[in-house]
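Have a close read of the entry that follows and walk me through the local backbone shapes. See right below:
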Amino acid sequence: MTNQPPPPPPPPYSPPGSPTGGPVGPKPDSYLAWAILSTLFCCLPLGIASIVFAAQVDGKYNSGDYVGAQASSVMAKRFAIWGAIVSVVVAVVFVLIALAASNA
């Protein structure tokens, strides 16, 4: 009989998309350009929040946190859209107030 070493243990289970697992899909869009445009031309606070989330996408994806990268991508898009909507609403209200003041 020969003495063979025991086989190595299997690697620990790591579900896809977890921080220790590898990326499971294509890198989500960061919407950084939309975030910057929203900050410059629309609502500054919501645009800054959008930039923060957009900046997190690459780091999370490269560290293997696909779910976190996807969540940051969704939040960046959401804040950029809300920033644009808020700026349009504020502009419409401003025009209505200006028209009401000019007729008074």
